[in-house]
Amino acid sequence: MIDSRKDKVLAEVQEQLKVFTRGIYVLVIGVMALVYYILNPSILVFDVPEEQPLVQVEAPLPEYENGIHLATGFKEGENLQLVINNCTSCHSAKMVTQNRATRDGWKTMISWMQETQNLWDLGENEPLILDYLAKYYAPEESGRRKPLTNIDWYELED
Length: 158
Ligand code: HEC
Fold this sequence. Notes:
By secondary structure, the chain is mainly alpha-helical. The protein contains five helices and two strands.
């Protein structure tokens, strides 16, 4: 009876000892981990690769802005490509865009260039080019700015 009680106590002590040693192991491992971390704190930081600097890619220029073909200054419109192909090889587009004329007026200018400036026969493109020119470079109706009214004139003193 006494023996079995002794055995029981012994078994309990052994069990507690086991728990205690396990605790010591955990503690030692914890301390070791702590020391390692203190010596080398970066182990907990993910190794983030350095970000590549963003390469600035030039955005391609928009071909048109506010209805103007940027490269030539022509107004955006149907048959513009034909006009660019046929009307910008001898002089700048500006020669065209600074002019205003009716369809007949444009036809006259083209004929003049054909007769005197070696402008080639535009063939079936001619009416299309004239369409464009007559539409987008027609004579301006309003013409010159209207004279100012209601001006307060004053006498210059000498
Ligand atoms: C083969 C060459 C050539 C081509 C192509 C050409 N031109 Fe000309 N153009 C000329 C020359 C040369 C002049 C006179 C330039 C000057 O006076 O300095 C001229 C002048 C002009 C002028 C000014 C006329 C004036 O009275 O001031 C206009 C507008 C014009 N061209 C429109 C056009 C158009 C529209 C086209 C396309 C259909 C065209 N050109 C294609 C040679 C050309």
